[in-house]
């Protein structure tokens, strides 16, 4: 998770602990960005080393362990939210409930595309809404190296824990904002719905945000 202009100082100790736990995991793996320029066409149909993507599941477990041991969260059996289809099955869902009121719970859906633990869907709120999928694609062409991959996990989980993530979703659109940037789906529909709300005074979208887990 790169330093951002609004990054809370409390995250530094947590990230250092996550790094240490992750590095001791047998699934830990690092690799550079394999591309110096555009990827080859055949790389979009190839997954050379699916095993290394298990480092995603290891990163998620490191976050869970650190947050629980720090007394910031409680790991609970997850109930599948309405509209959420588990990647593998309910047994692979992890729910982390923050110890303080007003903070957002995390739903971590650790799945498998090629091997167990090679991707995670991250949900926040109650009921949980999906805010990220890491990696979005595991083919060789979409591989930007392990640093980018793990930073994607840290950026979302860290922002939720720090209370600085905001997610909005409406009729066929969504937007997720963190201090490092934002992502959106169907931006045109989002703009249209916002314009309609400004015109009518009726806001129909859902906003998910919460306080820091250490508040």
Automatic annotation (TrEMBL):
InterPro entries (alphabetical): DUF6226
Protein name (database record): Uncharacterized protein
Residue span of region Disordered: 175-195
Start-end of Polar residues biased regions: 175-186
Pfam families per UniProt: DUF6226
């Amino acid at each position: 998770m790169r330093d951002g202009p609004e990054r809370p100082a409390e995250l530094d100790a947590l990230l250092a602990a996550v790094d240490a736990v992750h590095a001791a995991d047998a699934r830990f793996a690092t690799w550079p960005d394999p591309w110096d320029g555009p990827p080859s066409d055949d790389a979009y149909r190839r997954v050379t080393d699916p095993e290394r993507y298990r480092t995603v599941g290891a990163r998620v477990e490191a976050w869970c362990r650190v947050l629980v041991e720090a007394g910031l969260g409680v790991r609970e059996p997850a109930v599948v939210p309405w509209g959420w289809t588990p990647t593998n099955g309910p047994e692979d869902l992890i729910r982390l409930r923050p110890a303080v009121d007003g903070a957002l719970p995390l739903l971590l859906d650790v799945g498998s595309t090629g091997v167990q633990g090679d991707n995670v869907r991250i949900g926040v709120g109650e009921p949980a809404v999906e805010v990220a999928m890491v990696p979005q694609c595991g083919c060789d062409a979409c591989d930007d190296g392990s640093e980018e991959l793990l930073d994607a996990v840290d950026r979302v989980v860290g922002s939720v824990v720090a209370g600085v993530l905001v997610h909005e979703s409406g009729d066929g659109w969504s937007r997720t904002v963190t201090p490092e940037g934002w992502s959106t789906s169907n931006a045109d529909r989002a703009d249209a719905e916002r314009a309609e709300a400004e015109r009518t005074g009726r806001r129909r979208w859902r906003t998910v945000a919460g306080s820091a887990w250490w508040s």
